[in-house]
Amino acid sequence: MNTLQRIVLLTLLGILFPVFQSAANADYPDHERLSQRLQALNRNYPGLASLQSLTKTEGEKDIWLLTIGRGDIANKPAIAVVGGVMGDHLLGSELALQFAERVLASSSESKVQNLLDSLSFYVFPDMSPDAREQYFRPLRYERLGNASPTDLDRDGRIGEDGYDDLNNDGLITMMRIKDPTGDWMKHPEDDRIMVKARPEKGETGEYLLFSEGIDNDKDGQFNEDGEEGVFFNRNFSFKYPVFKRGAGEHAVSERETRAIADFLFDAKNVFAVISFGEANNLATPLSYNERDANARIFTGWKEQDIAINQKISHLYNQHLGDNAPAAAPGSDGDFFQWAYYHYGRYSFSTQGWQPPKNDMNDEDEYASGELAFLRWAEEHQLENAFVPWTAVEHPDFPGRMVEVGGIAPFVMKSPPYYMVDSIAEKHTDFIMDVARLRPQIDIVNLKTENLGRNLNRVSLDVINTGSFPTASQTGEQVRWMQKTVMRVTLDSGQTLVSGQPVEVMGAIGGRSSESRSWLIRGSGSLIIRVGSEASGFKEVKVDL
User: Fold this and answer.
1) Whole-number Å distance between alpha carbons of 413 and 508
2) Which of 22, 327, 489, 526 is deepest in the core (most CB within 10 A)?
3) What are phi and psi of 184, to 5 degrees?
4) Position 22 in a domain
5) Whole-structure pTM over 0.70, yes or no?
6) Shortest CA distance to 54 belongs to which of 143, 126, 146?
């Protein structure tokens, strides 16, 4: 093979390799592939992307942070984008990662370039890597906990009752046991689905229903103390669920929760957090609850912050349309609520996707979500969405009819991978539109008036040209949000007759302004600087 032939062959391989790689990777990425994609962004966009590992989990997996922006990043407003909040939510990590990829791929476009000159993104694509890896292991189940050894059932022993694959299909589903004392029955429209019997309507239960497994520790429970440890989304300080499964020994006890909390508390420029998890406060706007919002330990959004939530909710539904997933509350100890109530930032969360519901009478349907999902899966010809019920011999139920089957793990929480691109595109566009509403401090209407006797009045308006206030209402109350500060630095020959040399201002509302003036004796130049990390700074020089 001559030199020219080698060059042609290598060129063709270079063209074809991404195609082969894409075909080979037609599924959600494991931690290694996710890391490779992040490292590629760091390598391909120098000066715009910066990758660092905040810590390693107990399972020796990196907690990655990709920072996107240029210039003095710490002093420009920023949005934190967080995926992998739930270990069984594969889509969340992919949406966060694709957000970074799409923003950087379009960074040469003028509108994106201009945005990245004045705003930054902190992208945390996978906060539950230990749990998420269960999807890629020989035994697949919806795991939530990390690799920290944990006594989940608090019986003094660790890991004594994990998952057991009774039908040897590599999946943990459900098992139903024929039993006249049970309160479960087959769905009247689809006997693949199990539903609770309703005695008030004359229905009688026929089955016991448990997670697929064996009662290894003989305590009457199944799979209650397996390999998984602490749940990322139950380990935060707001309404911390003490002694509850997956919560950990104390709030923020884990390396990954501590790493993101420490980073964000130091990141004074973050004005909003957008996370992908089980909660959703975007599909339906929040409602103001005066009692909850004004309690001594408040558990409801503040009134002014509700107005921002409503604005962002409207924006989200514009982007998602009928595909917007349903509203869902947060959970005790979760990240989404911590980001608002304890970190003091606007916090928005969405599942990103949920199976579309078929037209049914929800008031008269049992388990309509599962029934609708199976109909949708069949319509889209999804393979392996359901494991047929199969009879097995069970040591805990000798001589009894025991069947294993049900909806496969993960499929109701994350769509098939081929559907992800369009979902990611919509969420990227949404986040970019949120970024364009960022708080932005400016100085306008600057005037100087010579009053005689070497005395001048300087006046101006401080304006927030963004839609977001310079601080959330709860941020002002918890006092973790940086205040807007105005400083006047005089020349050596000048004295301040009236007005403050340094003023800590309250939050300036979206598209609002405040006026200030000073009396200054003496000639020369003075510097006026105003702003905060979360809204940016503006500085002007005034010659008198």
Assistant:
1) 40
2) 526
3) -115, 150
4) no
5) yes
6) 126
